[in-house]
Amino acid sequence: MIFEQQALSFVPFPNNILMLILVHLLITLNLYSFMSEPSSIHHFKIESIDGKTIDFANFKGKKILIVNVASECGYTKQYAQLQELHELHQNKLVILGFPSNDFGGQEPGSAEEIQEFCSSKFGVTFPLTTKVNIKSSPVHPIYEWLTQKSKNGVMDASVKWNFNKFLIDENGRLEKALPSSVTPLDEEILNWVGA
Question: Which numeric CATH code is attached to 41-193?
């Protein structure tokens, strides 16, 4: 009888191990799903200002400079330096302008108006995207990725005004966020590009 009681007391033990294995498996799966969040920008696609598709996978091996742009901002003159940077380094750098009306309503124009303004005033030839939401809902997924460490795996960042800059390395990983006051031909950006 004592032997039977001892044998019965061991019955829950395998169940405890099974429970531990199950808990470990669930934690591992949960961590895997968290870690499987893309840490590269190369999985994104976005519509260009002229209705075509910009596929970030095409930019593998090049650095990417993402700038939220506006036509009626005190920083709008940075378009000229962005174009100059594009012309100097287009073999190793992709500049992408993301028009947004989220900051002071300074990009109210249509796609056609924005495109005309950029080409006639600044000779812009680098890609521009369709107008996006950066602060207003729904925030574009690329800007969610740029500003949330849980998505980019590197840092939380905030976009405070037009012409904020995000620096992405050749592997599609976020490296740095810079404020509007840092111009496109600033030494920090030129050093990053490898000029």
Answer: 3.40.30.10
